[in-house]
Design brief:
single chain, mainly alpha, Methane Monooxygenase Hydroxylase, Chain G, domain 1, two-stranded antiparallel sheet, 2 strands, elongated, transmembrane, MalF_N_TM, ABC-type maltose transporter activity, cell inner membrane, Maltose/maltodextrin transport system permease protein
Length: 158
């Protein structure tokens, strides 16, 4: 008794685009391009995007290349979309909230500390003010500098 193929019977593929060689060539090219893009993301410091791309591409390649995972082809786009557009931003938001890491915090601690210590605040002139009623039922603001005797009358306020 001989069991050559205990599973599904093989069918003859008549079209050129139905052969396994073309399928594996396409999967190989897609894998190489994806790996190149993932390495570029990782090299630029975008670790979360590189990990997310690696997970989505590897799961997609497995599901669409494996005949046993044929039923998952209908579920994968929904799960991938939920992971990419809901879970990934949620995880990134939580990571930024608890680590205070964002695009504005790209300096080392020592450099950020020196930048903050070099900031100076220069005060402008200080004025005392008075608010007086005018004859036509408006208000007049009187600004008087503390150091000089000159006065400033802006236009009346309604």
């Amino acid at each position: 008794m001989q069991f050559a193929h205990a599973g599904l019977p093989t069918r003859q593929k008549s079209k050129w685009w139905q052969h396994d060689g073309l399928k594996w060539l396409t999967i190989g090219l897609f894998s190489l391009i994806s790996c190149y893009l993932i390495v570029l993301m990782y090299a630029q410091g975008e670790y979360l995007f590189a990990i997310m791309t690696l997970i989505l591409v590897s799961a997609g390649l497995y599901i669409f290349a494996n005949r046993r995972a044929y039923a998952w082809r209908y579920v994968y786009p929904g799960i991938a979309g939920m992971g990419l557009f809901v879970l990934f931003p949620l995880i990134c938001t939580i990571a930024i909230a608890f680590t205070n890491y964002s695009s504005t915090n790209q300096l080392t601690f020592e450099r950020a500390q020196s930048v903050l210590m070099q900031r100076q605040f220069q005060t402008g002139k200080t004025f005392t003010f008075g608010l007086y009623p005018t004859a036509d039922r408006q208000w007049q603001l009187l600004l008087t500098p503390r150091t000089a005797a000159s006065r400033c009358f802006p236009p009346p306020l309604a």
